Amino acid sequence: MASILEPVGKALVFETIRPGLRAYVRKAGYQEVPYKLFGILFYVIAALFVILYVGFIVPEVTTSNPLLAFVLYFFSAIVVLALFAVIAILFLHFIFSMKIYNRTKELERILPDYLMLVSTNLKGGMSFEKALWDAIKPEFGVLANEIGLVSKKVMTGNEIVGALKEFVVKYESPILRRNFQLIISEFQSGGKIVTVIDRVIDNLKKTQMLKKELVASTVTYMIFIGALVTVVAPVLFALSYQLFFLIQGFMGQVTATTVPGQAGGLSLSAPEIKAFDFRLFSVGALLIIAAGSGFITSVIEKGDLSGVTKYAPMYVLVSLAVYFVSSYLLAGVFSGLQIG
Length: 340
Description:
3 domains
């Protein structure tokens, strides 16, 4: 299967963008471009295209003019394929961006512990290069892998300063960049690098403590948003659904009313909106509200969108569950009020 998927994935990527793509996916932890994943997405898109095109688009073209039918088929196919391609690209970009972001935050989290070992090794009389290599531990995960790559570059003839700078610029992390720049500058100047590393460790720990305090101070807002999304909004939509049935029943009984003194009278009729359409609108609105609240909660807690994959699915599932349960319970409460 891999022998089929990988060539297809490579064929989808232009030769000119492969070097940039390779550098991009390496930030996400891939040593090589995942062409197999691209191939899988291609076949998934092809299957969805056939289902959508044959099942929904072809039956809608009812013209008897063969030339016009060909034009409609052709342009509709291009539009659908372009839409699927854009969705696939955005999906891959989102997945890779989240992985890069998580790796960057993991680096920032474990950096103080790693630098503590480096400082201890330097105080024990090791050289700077030796202190960096000996501080690598399996529990450091991403940082251990990155420093391991730096050590391999140094062993193959690269300068340690250049190798460290390549590692630092690889990630969009101001914390990583500033602190390593201080360490590199002190190393190049021949100063007391241990003192600089100890100060960097203190600053990193203070920064992490401040972030935790900020998160703790925003818990009230997160609870408020969570209550609105998971309880208030679903219950209100469920109540509106039952009120819709009451109004529909009332309007079904009063089909026409004539206001005295007016020619022709005032005509009232049952609403044209169907119950299924109203429920579909409610579910769609809850999905949008839950997803948006996931973004907002992530920004409040962490200052960015890294937590959206944690909060948005939870909000969506809980709000839909509360909505359907509330609809069932309110249907029993309002059953005695139905006009029959």
